[in-house]
Amino acid sequence: MGTNSREVGTFGRAVAAELRAELARKNVSMRRFSVETGLPLSTLQKTLAGTRVADVEDLYAICAGLGIDPDEIFRRAQAELDAADPNRRKAHAERKRRMLG
């Protein structure tokens, strides 16, 4: 899993918050979770802090370790963002409508 110098966006930070919440619900320390997933502790810390853009492989490993589908994490993150900003919700609904035809 290579280096990643891109800036984390709003959605990425929301995903990180959902992953942190799920880890807290599982009541597992980050150090132990790092060992269980095989991800370096620093990668896990930065990803869950929302300061590092997650690679697809890392995100999948985190979600698999938490026993949750990545789609569920994305849905939760989007719902939180939509709830916080009605204009964002409208824009998201419009993008989804265009994508689905």
From TrEMBL:
Protein name (Swiss-Prot/TrEMBL): Helix-turn-helix transcriptional regulator
SMART domains in the cross-refs: HTH_XRE (SM00530)
Domain HTH cro/C1-type residues, every copy: 19-73
InterPro entries assigned: Cro/C1-type_HTH, Lambda_DNA-bd_dom_sf
Record Pfam families: HTH_26
Cross-referenced Gene3D superfamilies: lambda repressor-like DNA-binding domains
Biological source species: Sinomonas terricola
